[in-house]
Write a structure and sequence with these properties.
It holds the Pfam family FA_hydroxylase. It is found in: Membrane. InterPro entries: Fatty_acid_hydroxylase (IPR006694), Sterol_Desaturase_Related (IPR050307). Keywords: Membrane, Transmembrane, Transmembrane helix. It is a single chain. The protein is mainly α. The chain has one domain. Helix content is about 65%, strand content about 0%. Helix 7 runs antiparallel to helix 9 and helix 7 packs across helix 10. The N terminus and C terminus are likely disordered. It binds zinc ion (2 copies). One zinc ion binds next to helix 12.
Length: about 280
Amino acid sequence: MWNITEVALQLPTSTASNRLLQPLWDHLLLRHYIVVSSPFFPLLLAFSSYFIFSLPFAILDILGERSPLFKYKIQKSRHPTIGMMLRTLGTAVYNHLVFVLPAVLITNVVMPSPPLPAVAPTVWELISGALGVLLIFDTQYFFWHLVHHKNPHLYRWVHAIHHDYISPFSWSTQHLSAVELMTVGFWSNINPILLKCHPLTIWTLTVFSIWMSVEDHIGYDLPYSPGHLVPFGLLGGAMAHDIHHQKPSSNFAPFFSHWDRLFGTAVTVKPTKKIDKEK
Ligand SMILES: [Zn+2]
Ligand SMILES: [Zn+2]
């Protein structure tokens, strides 16, 4: 088992000193080793990211029409109530305490994490690893999601709870059945291992992918959202996923748009405006 002294003795190497992220990695290892080496750190990072990214949009939802961003709300006639917010947040807390936390404990006993490396990843390793994992996850979830909408039994038992709300709101991001959350959690853990990602890449990816998942559910089509900033409509974003909650036979991919385009399930802005007017 490593400790701070052993980590410190291996720092810095000539390779490490050339890396842009090395000072950050050294700081994490030398100042926060107990926290970042804990098997519960990824879980803490994931849940706190969900909470921190969701909270500002919950405040906007409570402000409703008084919010300066209300003009960007996609389904203006539907407002989440405090009860709906508490229910969805409660589902997320319950699932994490009852299913995810024991799974982390068991995994740590059966397959303990390897010691943290002394050398940071290069920026290229971090970006390419994160992008690779996102693309693999997007593919896995697209087909899983498609199958769960096509099969009525799977839909009812596993995915239907996520469609309790036609108009998504930030806390509803993790309003998932335990089976769906554990499936998503399994892929999120196994994909970076398959691509041999550095722990710093994994943690960055955790925060980034949860931000993108919350962004999918905020219910606001913000002009500076990634869906608008990334060219050629490569990302789906809030509008695409909001349409999925209104029209569940469309937009199955969580992040990117290529699988929905290939399978003819991509629905873009125009039909949504029509749906909104019809309602
Ligand atoms: Zn959703
Ligand atoms: Zn769905």
